[in-house]
Every structure is written in C-alpha cells, then in structure tokens.
TrEMBL record:
The keyword DNA repair does not apply. Pfam families: NusB (PF01029). This is Transcription antitermination protein NusB. Belongs to the NusB family. NCBIfam families: nusB.
C-alpha cells in the first residue's frame, strides 16, 4: 500500500474513531500527534487531511447533504460519512492531488471497508463535487 493511501486510511480511522467514541476529531488528532498509539506516528498528510476536514466541516457536510440525493448524513453508514468528508475535502481543497486520483483512492477505501453499494455512491458523489467545484465560492 502506497504511503498516501496509508495516510488516507489513517485519517479515515481517526474520523471513524472520533465519531464512535463521540469525541472531537480535532482533539483526537492533537492527542495522537502528541502521543502516538502505533509504532509509526501519524504522517503529515494524515494530519493535513483531518485538519482540513475539521476546518471545513460545515461546508463539507452541507455539500454532501445537498448532492447525496435521497440520503441524509445520519442515514449513511459511519464509514461512508468519514470517507465522504475526507474525499470531499481532498477534491475541493487539495491542490497537489488530481481530483480523479483522490476520487479513485476514496472509492478504493469504500470498496475495502464499506458496503457493496458504497463504492458507486462515493464515486458518484465525489465526481459530482469535482464537477461543481468551479461554481463554489
């Protein structure tokens, strides 16, 4: 697994863990940066993804809810919510990764970690966000 793919998965793990434990993801990130719980400390890219989601949380949730057609955030599996928040952040706010690469990476994680229908859903929603990105302020 490539370094950036691992970093994305660790970011996903943090968002998912924070939701399951009902703790603030920004606080959890700071805690893990200060005192890693794994052999390898969190990468800079993992921290960048999680920090970006925290910074843009309201915008990301609003866009996901708008383009999720028939699905509320609460109705989605928790892993899909985390994947979509991270994927939406990377598609909309990351300049160093092409949108198609970011979408492919998040679809891959949805394939590995979520339901059979999740990869298609994640792909469609993130592709739609990439499409409307130029119109967003």
């Amino acid at each position: 697994m490539a370094a950036r793919t691992k970093a994305r998965k660790r970011a996903l793990d943090l968002l998912f863990e924070a939701e399951q434990r009902k703790v603030n993801v920004g606080d959890l990130l700071r805690e893990r940066l200060a005192a890693p719980v794994t052999e390898a400390p969190l990468s800079e890219f993992t921290a960048e993804l999680v920090s970006g989601v925290v910074e843009h949380w309201a915008q990301l949730d609003e866009l996901i809810a708008t383009y999720a057609q028939g699905w509320t955030l609460d109705r989605m599996p928790a892993v899909d919510r985390a994947i979509l928040r991270l994927g939406a952040y990377e598609v909309l706010h990351s300049d160093d990764v092409p949108e198609v690469v970011a979408i492919s990476e998040w679809v891959g994680l949805a394939t590995e970690l979520s339901t059979d229908d999740s990869p298609r859903f994640v792909n469609g929603l993130l592709a739609r966000l990439a499409e409307v990105k130029p119109t967003l302020a």
